[in-house]
């Protein structure tokens, strides 16, 4: 089987799940990495090091910023050249690849299996497993078009170790510069967070605003005081996350409360995550939250309420005040991890 | 400005959805307008208020999906159209995009088509880009803010890495995210208007197209594996003692 793997990157940062897609493709046969952008030699080199047998590069100033139309046209043109024609195109799932794969599937009269967590061969048919109803149900699904297109969820497939001795010469491919949009500016958000790739996530819920011993500065109304308290709570959570090299997550209640930006939200209307360690602080465990984190390898819950549903999902639980437990945990980890 | 908001009807987000006898079931939970599509209707209404014009809500679904369209009307949409046809039962996203594009053409086009970021049921989030591709229009995805001026639209695109400002000439297809603003509640007048509204129903024949053949198909449904972990409660005299025990336990699991 011949697989294309689209290497997703933003401002030179490569999505690690791109390498996981190469690893998956190698289990099925040969892998050609596909790299689009402007000045992407380093990315092509990294693709060889991660095991690509071949690398196709479209390197052009017109592809400097990701834009769905020219990227899709360039990919569709490459995939429909008979000598290159792949059986499968894999993508790491991101906002960009969702649009790219969607458009290319229209061009190639095929379909996309998104957010897959498993891919198996049955005879000569590829069967993917993906979540529907935000993970409340799983489906096995097939694509009868060619090539099959599939985007993988991060951290579900093993990541190949890079081998610096592997190299090759990238093959230039024709660029289609049919952009219909213009990127006029970009600002990195201070709350930018990549929960999908995080190995450790420490999350806060409504409980983070619930520290009555904190005296908010004078002049705040009740709502401002609540948010001020929540920020102090999330500061403790952030410290713990930092010691563990992890990311900060949040429940919908915390996001709706204005405690933390939406980009941190874990759950049905936020991000579905699969870290190795998930520490839920002051999160009761509404179903919307549970479907977003229950696949974590190890779940630890800290909550004042011993009856909170989150404890049913957890391996370890602490009934207690997160404002005491979380800082104590930070200190204990610092000591143990020698930080 | 002529704006079309594309919506879908899904089981309520609180519903206990599960796989049962090869089907997806949700008990007696109500069917509602897809929560992300409420933001699409909100975004469309904001543009109508800023620019003048009309908002049409468009939905593919069974007869029951009328209620989702009525919700859009009650929020303030001017008209609603339901596309329903027995041949649409096995639609995939490319097929949905082709049907929507045919309906948009039958309406006589538009200046802007607005979608929610994804649906709560299939959740693949592909239809917006595919509809744009079928129409040949620019796609502006994940807009947290929309500004229209002099025949162009500029959006604030919210991605994991931050925010991008992206623009295109109208007509364009836009998907919106939550930062567009909380969807307004239907007003009393809106609900009355919606209850009396005449919602045209179009079949594939009305659109002049055949049912698109589905390329993507489901072969099996499963409930996620039930975890058999039993929680172990960590107790101690002081927070420090609890923390110390908990850290030992976590490190022993070798997940770090």
Radius of gyration of chain B: 22 Å
CATH homology group of the largest domain in chain A: HUPs
User: How many β-strand runs of chain B?
Assistant: 15
The helix content of chain B is 25-40%
Mean pLDDT of chain B: 96
CATH architecture of chain B: 3-Layer(aba) Sandwich
- Supply the helix-strand structural class of chain A: alpha/beta
At the first level of CATH, the class of chain B is Alpha Beta
Oligomeric state of the chains in view: heterodimer
Greatest interface: A-B, 93 and 81 residues
Mean residue pLDDT of chain A: 94
Description:
The complex is a heterodimer of chains A (339) and B (256). Chain A has 339 residues and is of the alpha/beta class. Chain A folds into 2 domains: 2-172, HUPs (Rossmann fold, 3-Layer(aba) Sandwich); 200-337, TPP-binding domain (Rossmann fold). Chain A has 9 helices and 18 strands. Chain A has helices spanning 17-28, 41-49, 68-79, 95-107, 222-243, 252-256, 287-293, 310-313, 322-337, and strands at residues 2-6, 9-10, 13-14, 30-37, 54-59, 88-92, 112-116, 118-122, 125-132, 137-143, 148-152, 171-172, 181-188, 200-204, 247-250, 277-281, 298-303, 316-319. Chain A has a 7-stranded parallel β-sheet, with helices on both faces. The N and C termini of chain A lie far apart (47 Å). Chain B has 256 residues and is of the alpha/beta class. Chain B has one domain (2-207): Rossmann fold. Chain B is built from 7 helices and 15 strands. Chain B has a 9-stranded mixed β-sheet, sandwiched between helices. A two-stranded antiparallel sheet of chain B has the order 2-5. In chain B, strands 3-4 form a two-stranded antiparallel ribbon. In chain B, helix 2 (66-75) crosses helix 5 and helix 3 crosses helix 4 (127-135). Chain B is globular and about 70 Å long. The termini of chain B are far apart. The interface between A and B is large, with 93 and 81 residues. Strand 10 (137-143) of chain A pairs antiparallel with strand 14 (216-222) of chain B, so a sheet runs across the interface.
């Amino acid at each position: 089987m011949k697989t294309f793997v689209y290497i997703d990157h933003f401002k030179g940062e490569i999505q690690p799940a791109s390498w996981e897609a190469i690893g998956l493709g190698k289990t099925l046969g040969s892998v050609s990495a596909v790299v689009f952008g402007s000045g992407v030699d380093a990315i092509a080199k990294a693709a060889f090091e991660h095991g690509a047998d071949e690398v196709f590069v479209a390197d052009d100033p017109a592809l400097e910023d990701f834009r769905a139309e020219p990227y899709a046209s360039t990919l569709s043109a490459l995939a429909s050249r008979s000598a290159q024609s792949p059986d499968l195109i894999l993508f790491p799932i991101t906002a960009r690849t969702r649009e790219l794969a969607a458009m290319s599937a229209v061009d190639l009269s095929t379909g996309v299996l998104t957010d897959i967590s498993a891919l198996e061969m049955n005879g000569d048919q590829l069967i993917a497993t993906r979540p529907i109803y935000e993970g409340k149900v799983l489906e096995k699904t097939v694509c009868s078009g060619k090539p099959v297109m599939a985007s993988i969820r991060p951290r579900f497939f093993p990541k190949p170790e890079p081998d610096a001795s592997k190299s090759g010469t990238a093959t230039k491919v024709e660029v289609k510069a049919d952009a219909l949009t213009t990127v006029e500016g970009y600002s990195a958000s201070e709350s930018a967070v990549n929960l999908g790739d995080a190995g450790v996530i420490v999350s806060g819920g409504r409980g983070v605003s619930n520290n009555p011993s904190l005296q908010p500065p004078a002049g705040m109304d009740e709502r401002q005081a609540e948010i001020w308290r929540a920020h102090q709570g999330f500061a403790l959570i952030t410290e713990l996350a930092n010691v563990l090299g992890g990311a900060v997550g949040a429940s919908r209640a915390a996001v709706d409360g204005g405690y933390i930006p939406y980009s941190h939200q874990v759950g049905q209307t936020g991000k579905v995550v699969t870290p190795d360690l998930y520490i839920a602080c002051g999160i009761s465990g509404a179903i919307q939250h549970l479907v977003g984190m229950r696949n974590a390898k190890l779940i630890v819950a800290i909550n004042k309420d011993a009856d909170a549903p989150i404890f049913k999902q957890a391996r370890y639980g602490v009934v207690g005040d997160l404002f005491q437990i979380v800082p104590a945990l930070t200190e204990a980890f610092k000591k143990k991890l020698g930080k | 400005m002529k704006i079309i908001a594309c919506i879908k009807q899904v089981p309520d987000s609180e519903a206990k959805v599960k796989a049962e006898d090869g089907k997806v079931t949700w008990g007696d939970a109500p069917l509602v307008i897809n929560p992300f599509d409420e933001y699409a209707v909100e975004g469309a209404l904001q543009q109508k208020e800023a620019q003048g014009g009309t908002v049409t809500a468009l939905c593919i679904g069974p007869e029951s999906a009328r209620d989702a369209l009525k919700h859009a009307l009650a929020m303030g949409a001017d008209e609603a159209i339901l596309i329903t046809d027995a041949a649409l039962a096995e639609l995939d996203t490319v097929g949905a995009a082709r049907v929507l594009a045919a309906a948009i053409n039958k309406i006589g086009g538009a200046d802007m088509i607005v979608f929610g970021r994804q649906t709560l049921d299939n959740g693949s989030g592909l239809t917006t880009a595919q509809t744009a591709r079928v129409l040949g229009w620019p796609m502006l995805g994940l807009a947290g803010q929309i500004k229209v001026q002099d025949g162009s639209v500029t959006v604030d695109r919210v991605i994991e890495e931050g925010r991008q400002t992206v623009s295109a000439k109208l007509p364009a297809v836009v998907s919106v995210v939550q930062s567009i603003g909380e969807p307004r509640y239907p007003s009393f007048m809106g609900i009355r208007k919606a209850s009396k509204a005449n919602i045209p129903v179009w079949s594939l024949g009305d659109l002049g197209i055949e049912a698109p053949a589905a390329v993507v198909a489901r072969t099996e449904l499963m409930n996620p594996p039930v975890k058999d972990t039993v929680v172990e409660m960590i107790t101690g005299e002081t927070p420090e003692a609890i923390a110390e025990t908990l850290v030992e336990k976590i490190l022993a699991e070798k997940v770090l």
